[in-house]
Amino acid sequence: MTAPPLVRRFRSTIRLRSESADRVMKQVTEAKARASQWKKMHRRHVIATDAVAVVVAVTVAQVARFGLPESTSPGMGDHWRYVTACSIILAVVWLAALGLQESWDLSLTGIGSEEYRRVVTATAWAFGIIAVTDLLLQLGLVRGYLAIALPVGLVGLLAGRHLLRRDLARKRSRGAFTSQVVVLGKPRSVIALCNTFNRCSHAGYRVVGACLPDYQGKVGLEIDTRTGPVPVLGNQHSVAEVVSLTNADALAVTSAEHLGHEHMRTLTWQLDSLGTDLIVMPGMVDIVGPRLKIRPIDNMPLFHVARPRHDGALHYHKRFFDLVVGTIALVLLSPVMLMVAAAIKWHDGGPVFFCQDRVGYNGIQFRIVKFRTMKPESEAELETERIVSGQSDGIFFKSATDSRITPIGRWLRKTSIDEIPQLFNVLAGSMSIVGPRPLVPGEGSSVEYFIERRGLVKPGITGLWQVSGRSDVSAAERIRLDHFYVDNWSYVQDLVIVLRTVRTVLQRHGAY
Question: What secondary structure does DSSP assign to 279-329, as a single string?
């Protein structure tokens, strides 16, 4: 294949920079080979981890429900072998469901909640099949056995995936296990995408070049981004050659409008022959997964964006989750609450709890309950503290050097123990376990649509903002995260946030 002029000039530019073109080609070829190897290795690790979690789950359930073989009464050996056979069948069906749900798809690796959703869905299908089969064929499986295997296995599967994600993110932050990407789009969109990939390094994308629509200028031009300069290697007519030259793993198209239908279709065929993935930005931000549906009309794929759903059965399901988790957490944490209450009272003799009006569901105000972490009557000093900290005009106020915080209060905030009394708000129905943090009346009112959108869901004890940096997050990013949660709420996302909250609290990131 003859390289177009832009690509030929790019090769010349490389030589002018005293670098061998053959050496560069060898490096990118080796990089792509390494990328293929790590993907295969990671997939094997995921499958092996899932298999271990499933085997452990059925073994624990069998031993817990039926005991060990030697501890069973005479004549129970046959029954033990029968139950063991059923456990093996359950494990096989479970792993098959994980495979059929494509939960091992490498495109889900390390990002988003879709991977976790498929694990949960596959588990539900596996146990549904086993339960129906048991009912129809009278297999004799005790419900207690399934009731143990289900939670143990699901927790093991999700924990295993989470640990693998953390390991992969750690390696990607060091520049390993990444996919090389060529971006086709205008300079502004190239910069935006590079900044996104830099901010989300766990996604594992590294931009190695750009193609600008209708670009005919000098090759060697570079686009400055936060991650460094990105060389311009061609235009929309030389994309396939540039991808081949750089051995890119993927082509990211920020807008397909300038390509046309025929050119876009031809490009997909060319990328398919090169074994390169195609990533198309739909022009919409912060809309994910379940809300996006592709519905073709006259062979033209159209994105349909479903409206966010927070009412009806979904509302009651979330309420049931809040009641169960809130009750269990309150019972388990009661001793801690008693000790903290005694410590606060002993410290300065002031009130144990801090109560304040906050904006809740549908904009209705409620009284939030927290352990007091500041000096009594500290509300009168709020404006002074805002001025001292240089946040008098800020949308939100949070200061790491707030002089009103007591010594014990600073520790309570670092450990997030001051939030525990909000479990009473959860049980009362004014808050949820997961949701945007409740705002003080008037806070955030200057941001268009912010208060209205947040009012669609109940505020939460923890949320996407808390597990994404907490007080270290900028006001703009906090607003974006709150909008993202409201627009894309799902059970799986809530579960992921709860699991991430445990890590965030232990690491104490952004807590003050």
Answer: EE--S--S--GGGEEEEEETTEEEEEEPPP--STHHHHHHHHHHHHHHHHH
